Sequence to fold (228 residues):
Amino acid sequence: MSKNLGITLGLIMVAVIGLGLLIALDDRGGTAAPAATDASADPQAAPTAPAGLLVREDSRHLDRVEEAPVTVVEFLDFECEACRAQFPVMERIREDYDGRINTVIRYFPMPGHTNAEPAAAAVEAAAQQGALEEMYVRMYETQAEWGESQDSKAEVFVGFAEDLGLDTEEFTATMEDPATLERVRSDFRDGVALGVRGTPTIFVNGRPTPSMPGYETLSAMIDRELEG
Fold:
């Protein structure tokens, strides 16, 4: 083999390996990715997303305030480690702005996560028994126990429902109901239509935030909207 041919083959192998790593990272869906209307250095300059796609009549509210001037919407995946890392920030925002803003979650289970859809279905099933927040919190608190598995963890989620005092027979039936899966996938389709490519993706009054916004960034965006 000539020296030049060897160098060429070596470069090709490096390119192939690099492409494989990019594909693997994309398939994991565990890192934050911006919406198509990516937030710039000044998120307020970003165009707002269509309200009809951001919040539907059946969208799940963690906090609902009548005539609230600000709505924070998060597209999330309960198996996503980046979402788990964002969770404390979102909880602090909810606490500090309690009674002043709406917070809405939209299901966006990434295809690379085996239990992302079942987890979303479990949260939706709990919501139908009035335990949305309790199951939402439980999923993140226990993610390390069931996440990353290639096996179904549906029985684990039924155990969560039992711990929360829910009707487990009703919970299981709802979680396994094709209508519940369609409800989850409808959120996913809205996210795709909005340009969501990864989780968590967060909007403040329709404006996309920077990827995985810290508390200061997110609160600054909310404060601007509150000051209106």
Q: What stands out?
A: The first strand starts at residue 60 and ends at 63. Strands lie at 60-63, 70-76, 101-107, 201-204, 207-208. Confidence is low (pLDDT under 50) at residues 1-40. The radius of gyration is 20 Å.
